[in-house]
Design brief:
By secondary structure, the protein is an alpha/beta fold. It is globular, with a radius of gyration of 22 Å. The termini are far apart.
């Protein structure tokens, strides 16, 4: 049973019992730390040296929540291969525990591990809606689509109680600011009331990320994300509510799940998806070691083949960070994936319509203007004191 979160969001970390497992198998220290930690035993656990502390003997990991005292909520980017220039991340770290998550290395900036820390030590932004309202109300703000789910998932399990994402959506709806969301969690259907209303004004679009239809693979590779069946159900419910919904078959991992691409696209189309996209596996920084460790433990029979195929898409390395190729890879295997995707999209009649979300409806509510004026006045008074 999940803990109840007090309404005033206390600074103390809130523990949560482990109930679904974790993705990473280790918790190496941040790449910025000079000291390295390792797990060891003195041989006295559980009755003596003969019984060393295997994973099953260790106490369960608990998720802890900590306030993120950020002063801004909109993140900006200028990457030429990303189709948006601003995004919101309500959380830092992600309970879903996807072993391949390219956001894992960001936890190193906090002095935490991209391994188990990333999925067990979550920072949340309780002031997100208030900060967003102030930023949107600023005379300097120029409306454009805001992306959510581009780093960590806005609908990870803790969102069920915290409702930070739901509060953000209410602000975006009040300002008529369009939003595009990517998620792996069925929890997004909770917010159909807001999203359907925004969709009527051409202000919302959603993509479900479906990596595999194999529940066993999903359970180990992305342990706390919704099951593949639940993600397809979310596509169905969202599309039935009139919300433009697509599927991201991502990431495609050669030799592991790439053979499922067409089946994922077809199942998503049958559920109501009208758009589709894909990316290939990205392994920057610490993710290379985390993914290889996971692969050798969970799929030892195919580990060498998978790693070999990845290198064939990355010029002999496990990752290349160049814009333009980092999302798709290069070489014959990458070209074949691209051709297969294009053929499937054409056969399934996907991507025929590109939704252009409306940025011309944007307007600042009078309540937000008043709040901005009051905040500026209070700030001036504080400076005078």
């Amino acid at each position: 049973m999940r803990p109840k979160v007090p309404p005033d969001y206390p600074d103390d970390a809130i523990p949560e019992p482990l109930h679904k497992g974790r993705g990473a198998l280790s918790n190496e220290t941040s790449r910025y730390d000079t000291e390295k930690r390792i797990r060891t035993t003195d041989g006295w656990e559980q009755g003596g040296p003969a019984e060393l502390a295997d994973d099953e003997d260790l106490p369960p990991l608990r998720t802890t929540l900590t306030r993120d005292a950020t002063r801004t909520i909109l993140a900006r980017n200028t990457s030429p291969d990303i189709p948006f220039d601003r995004s919101i991340n309500p959380y830092r770290g992600c309970e879903h525990g996807c072993i391949y998550c390219f956001a894992r290395p960001t936890h190193a900036y906090l002095g935490l591990s991209p391994g188990l820390d990333f999925e067990t030590r979550i920072l949340f932004k309780p002031e997100a809606a208030k900060l967003l309202s102030a930023e949107l109300a600023s005379p300097k703000y120029r409306c454009d689509v805001i992306a959510m789910g581009t780093n960590t998932d806005p609908y990870q399990p803790v969102e069920r109680e915290l409702k930070v994402t739901r509060q953000i959506l209410r602000v975006l709806s009040d300002f008529n600011n369009p939003v595009g969301i990517v998620t792996k969690n069925h929890l997004i259907t909770r917010d159909i009331d807001i999203l359907a209303d925004m969709a009527k004004r051409n202000l919302a679009e959603v993509f479900l990320s479906v990596t595999t239809l194999d529940r066993d693979l999903a359970r180990t590779m992305e342990p706390r994300a919704s099951t593949p069946r639940k993600r397809l159900d979310a596509i169905r419910l969202l599309s039935q509510a009139g919300i433009p919904t697509g599927v991201m078959s991502a990431p495609m991992i050669p030799g592991l799940n790439d053979h499922e691409m067409e089946a994922i696209l077809e199942a998503s189309r049958d559920a109501g998806a009208t758009r589709a996209g894909y990316t290939v596996l990205r392994l920057p920084l610490e993710i290379k070691e985390l993914f290889e460790e996971w692969l050798r433990v969970n799929r030892p029979d195919r580990a060498e083949r998978v790693l070999s195929l990845i290198r064939q898409m990355r010029g002999g390395a496990l990752y290349q960070a160049e814009f333009g190729t980092r999302m798709k890879g290069e070489g014959p295997i990458a070209q074949l994936l691209s051709a297969r995707f294009a053929a499937a999209v054409k056969r399934l009649d996907l991507n025929r319509v590109r939704y252009r979300l409306d940025t011309l409806r944007f307007s600042v509510p009078e309540s937000a203007r008043t709040a901005l004026v009051d905040a500026k006045r209070d700030s001036r008074q504080m400076r005078l004191l």
